[in-house]
Design a protein that fits this description.
With 157 residues, this protein is an alpha+beta fold. It has one domain: Cytidine Deaminase, domain 2, CATH 3.40.140.10. It is 31% helix and 21% strand. Strands 2-1-3-4-5 form a five-stranded mixed β-sheet. Strand 1 and strand 2 form a beta hairpin. It binds zinc ion (ZN). The site of zinc ion has 6 residues, from helix 3.
Length: 157
């Protein structure tokens, strides 16, 4: 089981590394990649996508999470973000929190584009956003959004 988990996390990180290469960031020239690992083992990629109207730009982490949700997928087990000293912004922390529980892992990969050297920091979404705006505590939702994402696995996966 440990080996299977290890492979899943390797795939998560590699997907985020590849997504960083597809970043559309001509304005900031700061490419970021992200990936989400679901409870059933699927991985969804995201990258930052900028726009000439800067406020319309989207971060890699949210791009990956929205990709996962749009894919009709299940609870998020882990998130990975890859960039040069990249850390999730406040907005992304709140969006990650929406679909996380206390065990949802976050891998922050500092990838040096020149040397290719990677430094991986492992934490949790909850640790990254203490005192988050919580849809359960606020009474806005009757059930954890993470659980609302849970679906029965399809046979064709
Ligand atoms: Zn962000």
């Amino acid at each position: 089981m440990r080996k299977k988990n290890s492979r899943a996390f390797d795939r998560l990180i590699e997907t985020a590394v590849q997504a960083q290469k597809r970043s559309y960031s001509p304005y900031s020239r700061y490419p970021v990649g992200a990936a989400v690992l679901t409870a059933s083992g699927r991985v969804f990629a995201g990258c930052n996508v900028e726009n000439a109207s800067y406020g319309l730009s989207m971060c890699a982490e949210r791009s990956a999470i929205y990709h996962c949700v749009a894919g009709g997928h299940d609870a998020i087990r882990a998130v990975c973000v890859v960039g040069a000293a990249a850390k999730p912004c406040g907005a992304c922390r709140q969006v990650m929190f929406e679909f996380s529980d206390k065990d949802t892992e976050l891998y922050i990969v500092d990838l040096n584009p020149t040397t290719g050297r990677r430094t991986v920091v492992k934490t949790t979404v909850y640790k990254l956003l203490p005192m988050a705006f919580d849809p359960l505590a606020s009474g806005l939702l009757p059930a954890n959004p993470r659980n609302l994402l849970k679906r029965k696995p399809r046979r064709d996966r």
